[in-house]
Amino acid sequence: MVPEARGRAAQLTQSAEAYREQTVAEATGQTARFNKIYEEYKKAPEVTRQRLYLETMERLFGGTDKIILDSSGQGGGGVVPYLPLPELRSRQPAQAPQSATGGGNR
Fold first, then answer.
1. Mean pLDDT, range 82-104, rounded to an integer
2. Could you tell me the pTM of the whole model?
3. DSSP string, 45-62
């Protein structure tokens, strides 16, 4: 029973060490990313702010269907035209096969 308990204790210790190393590495990476962004922010605050906003919106809404509305109210009653390219690609019919005479070269 004692060797089994020692084995479990060693396993828990190793698991805790691995978790600590993972957490420290993650925090170090996030800190480095923040410092990089902050350096760019000091050079051009408005551009960096806009870029961060756009990247966040892309991450949040990247995989969703979209209806885009323009809140400025200018032209078109606030609706911005949206062309659903993924839907159009999935609706395209299969291309017609070329003729057997080889007349496909133009």
1. 61
2. 0.49
3. HHHHHHHHHHHHHHHHHT
